[in-house]
Design brief:
11% of the residues lie in helices and 34% in strands. The chain has 146 residues and is mainly beta. The chain has a domain of 96 residues. It has a 7-stranded antiparallel β-sheet, with helices on one face. The chain has a two-stranded parallel ribbon with strand order 1-2. The two termini are 23 Å apart.
Length: 146
């Protein structure tokens, strides 16, 4: 299988639904040296407010993303929750300033709260992706189009 190096945007999208082990299985090269910079993070969802907090690697500076409510009028509301996970980014942490985001909760598997994903982007690139550490279930397979 050929090894393919992923652009940072594609790597972040892949990590939102897959693990690094799956990336290797599929022949994708996601730079593991940068993964030690993917910090633990906490997400808190309360009503129409989404808050993600983490500490910037190598500087111990605390960073907080706070949404501007209401975050959406046409999607289902995420139940109030506080969860831990990781904030994935390639290169530098997200810059201070405005950011757009998409939050999605996947259904639980065998109990639990389900996977929670938040993708952050600016007008020209994906900047980071948060994923909870628990309830991250999925399955891989193969098939064919006829």
């Amino acid at each position: 299988m050929a090894i393919t190096t992923q652009h940072q945007d594609h790597a972040l999208l892949f990590l939102s639904n897959h693990s690094l082990e799956e990336a290797e299985h599929f022949g994708l090269n996601i730079n593991k040296q940068t993964l030690n910079h993917d910090p633990s993070a906490t997400i808190t969802v309360t009503g129409d407010k989404v808050v993600v907090e983490y500490t910037v690697p190598d500087s111990n500076a605390k960073r907080v993303f706070t949404s501007q409510p209401p975050y959406s009028f046409y999607t289902l509301k995420i139940p109030n929750t506080q969860r831990t996970g990781h904030l994935y980014f390639r290169g530098h942490p997200p810059s201070q300033g405005e950011s757009k985001f998409w939050i999605q909760q996947y259904p639980p598997y065998l109990g639990g709260d389900g996977r929670l994903i938040v993708e952050f982007w600016t007008d020209n690139q994906i900047t980071a992706m948060f994923k909870t550490d628990d309830n991250n279930f999925g399955a891989a397979g193969a098939g064919s189009w006829d």
